[in-house]
Give the backbone structure.
Amino acid sequence: ANPAAAASADPAAAQRTVTRRIPRDAAVVMNILRSMGVDEWEPRVVNQLMEFVHRYASEVLEESFVYCEHASRTDVNLDDVKLAIQAKLQKQYVKLPTVEDMHEIAASLNRIPMPVLNHRPGIHVPQEQNLLNANYQFFPRGYEMGEEGTREGGLFDGDREDRGGGGCGGG
């Protein structure tokens, strides 16, 4: 009555022998995979799914205990668990809108006409109200643009020596 010899003679017995060596939770996960038509998987898949099941169940039970304490009870009941699952589903698993809903949203947005572009030459810079961040100043400190677009004052008027050699040239 050697179990190893019996397992080698009967393939079904060999499968039962292997199944007995793994944890029951892993066997349940493997049975779920088989029931979904998955015939082959890496061993890490079972480990990952077991970790997910453990984390999900732990979080649901923790939330259930909070509901139980709020109701001034000591034992968690089925309603606490159901409420915790509903709260978790609403918080983590967002139901995607249907295609019809997306078409309605797109139609409502498309009813509003876009602003007319003016046909002026040059680069079109967004207006102040359309900026996402603060408007940056691109000119270094110390010089400003004159009335006719010329530079006035600052580092380019030969005053590098007066400012202690700072600026672009490092001189």
About this structure: The longest helix spans residues 43-70. Confidence is low (pLDDT under 50) at residues 156-171. The radius of gyration is 35 Å. The CA atoms of residues 155 and 162 lie 10 Å apart.
